[in-house]
Design brief:
By secondary structure, the protein is an alpha+beta fold. It has a single domain, classed as 2-Layer Sandwich (Heat Shock Protein 90), CATH 3.30.565.10. It has three helices and four strands. It has a four-stranded antiparallel beta sheet with strand order 1-2-4-3, with helices on one face. Helix 1 (2-10) runs antiparallel to helix 2 and helix 2 runs antiparallel to helix 3 (82-89). The mean pLDDT is 91.
């Protein structure tokens, strides 16, 4: 809930706000369920707006046994759809090592059209 509140406030007025709220919910849940962050550890959430028409949420966890991946599963399985949801709600997603601090960063990026203004007249 705190991750959603943080991202919701940071992306107020952003066209991709709802999609990225869904993504951060899944990424935070995965940090708690599938990494050392859920065993008494912590995770951090970042929101980045690198350019017009682009926003990104990232969750840094304390690392886990496996790499984030969309698993092969049965059609009627009750779980295992979190990263599929992230993939569906984002323009792209991925992960990387968190560097010297250890752990992993899992991120989701959303893009949307922005107006392009002509400079000068022909």
């Amino acid at each position: 809930a705190r991750a959603r509140a943080f991202v919701g406030a940071a992306l107020a007025g952003c066209p991709a706000r709802e999609a990225l709220l869904t993504c951060v919910s899944e990424l935070a849940a995965n940090a708690v369920v599938h990494t050392a962050s859920g065993a008494g550890g912590t995770f951090t959430v970042e929101v980045i707006r690198p350019a017009d028409g682009v926003a990104l949420v990232a969750v840094t966890d304390e690392g886990g046994q496996s790499q984030p991946a969309i698993p092969a599963r049965e059609r009627f399985a009750e779980g295992g759809r979190g990263l599929e949801l992230v993939e569906a709600c984002s323009s792209r997603w991925g992960y990387r090592d968190a560097g010297a601090a250890g752990g992993r960063v899992v991120w989701a990026e959303a893009t949307w059209p922005v107006a392009v203004h002509r400079v000068g007249a022909a």
